[in-house]
Specification:
The chain is an alpha/beta fold. It folds into three domains: about 50 residues, no CATH class; about 210 residues, Rossmann fold; about 60 residues, no CATH class. It has twelve helices and 14 strands. It has a six-stranded mixed beta sheet with strand order 10-11-12-7-13-14, sandwiched between helices. Strands 1-2-3-4 form a four-stranded antiparallel beta sheet. Strand 3 and strand 4 form a beta hairpin. The radius of gyration is 23 Å and the shape is globular.
Length: about 350
């Protein structure tokens, strides 16, 4: 028996598993071992990973239910090291997700808006079974992400801004590899791959070129194509259009709408692109410092902020976002104290900058 260290398996990463080892035993078929948190999970054969067969879901249930979920990370504080004195390492807690509760309906496109470091990606990693919440629980069509993780992995697919691939292989080879794990016939897979990549703006003559020779934007399109290829029931898009040009962003948005229309997919998308959220999402939730500070349709949030600001002209989604992500939520007393919402906002932004210095 021998173990060979392998590359991260990109298409399985979207399902919550990272390829770690190939185990070879004389006279037996190879087995794949995957890193999941601190555990190694064995996949005895590719049949175990054919995830689109025999899936039964209860369509009367909500697609995603997040109930009181929190996730805390402990980070070391840098200390002045004195060689003659023994010192204990001091750790600080970072509450990446803080008591988040929300529900996503079947076939809904739900946006999660937040600045960098607000907790968006941590929340998506919990939904995709890559992280275990410290408190609360999450269900996907009634399946618990901890107790029923293998079924959840069959229901979801995830596209991350840090999408991983076998960089020496071409887009076609990477996507054929993903398709085979879903038991998709080769001829059908090749036809779908060419169609999807073409619609995403990747020229036919580049489909056979190594990914390492492609731009970051092109690689991100291949990651999106990989998710669309298998028509997931729940699609988690973690800043999928970061690095794409405006034309490509529109192509991806159109594809997302088509995926919902053709396959009844439920889609959760994280972004800090307000125009994208407004164009694509049925509802949005704004997350700040790990907490959901506002949730509703774009029009509902705009009306609420316009009323608070006493504006007769429409507000933009950028103004909505800035309003709700002020560290200290502006109250009526604040508006009275400073004379207007805008002046109160400027005062608290200046206060936040002073605290960060």
């Amino acid at each position: 028996m021998c173990f060979a260290r392998g590359n991260s398996s990109p298409c399985l990463e979207g399902r919550g598993l990272l390829a770690t080892y190939v185990e070879v035993i004389s006279g037996e078929a190879p087995r794949l071992w995957f890193q999941k948190g601190a555990k190694l999970v064995v996949i005895h054969s590719l049949e175990d990973m054919r995830l689109t067969e025999d899936i039964v879901i209860d369509t009367t249930k909500d697609a995603v239910v997040i109930d009181g979920v929190s996730k805390i990370f402990k980070k070391s504080r840098p200390l002045l090291r004195l060689p003659w004195r023994e010192q204990k390492e001091e750790k600080r807690e970072v509450r990446a997700v803080d008591d988040v509760t929300m529900t996503v309906k079947r076939r809904e496109i739900m946006g999660i808006l937040g600045a960098n470091g607000s907790g968006k990606s941590t929340l998506v990693r919990i939904l995709s079974t890559l992280l275990i919440p410290d408190t609360g629980h999450v269900t996907i069509f009634g399946y618990d992400v901890e107790k029923d993780e293998r079924m959840v992995q069959r229901l979801i697919n995830r596209v991350s801004v840090e999408a991983s691939f076998f960089k020496k292989l071409s887009p076609m080879e990477n996507l054929i590899y993903a398709a085979r794990l879903y038991n998709m016939p080769g001829a059908e897979a090749r036809a779908k791959i060419r169609s999807i990549l073409g619609r995403l703006g990747i020229p036919q003559d580049r489909i056979g070129s190594p990914l390492e020779h492609m731009s970051r934007g092109m690689q991100q399109k291949v990651a999106i194509a990989r998710a669309f290829l298998t028509a997931p029931i729940v699609l988690l898009l973690d800043e999928p259009t970061t690095g794409l040009d405006p034309r490509s962003k529109i192509d991806v948005q159109n594809f997302v709408r088509q995926l919902r229309a053709d396959h009844d997919a439920t889609i959760l998308i994280t972004t800090h692109d307000m125009d994208e959220a407004e164009a694509l999402c049925d509802r949005v939730a704004i997350i700040d410092q790990g907490r959901i500070v506002a949730m509703g349709t774009v029009d509902e949030l705009k009306r609420a902020v316009a009323e608070r600001m006493e504006r007769t002209t429409p507000v933009t989604m950028n103004e909505v976002f800035m309003h709700y992500t002020v560290a200290h939520l502006i109250s009526d007393a604040d508006i009275e104290r400073y004379g207007s919402w805008e002046k109160a906002f400027e005062a608290f932004e200046a206060q936040k900058e002073d605290e960060e210095e």
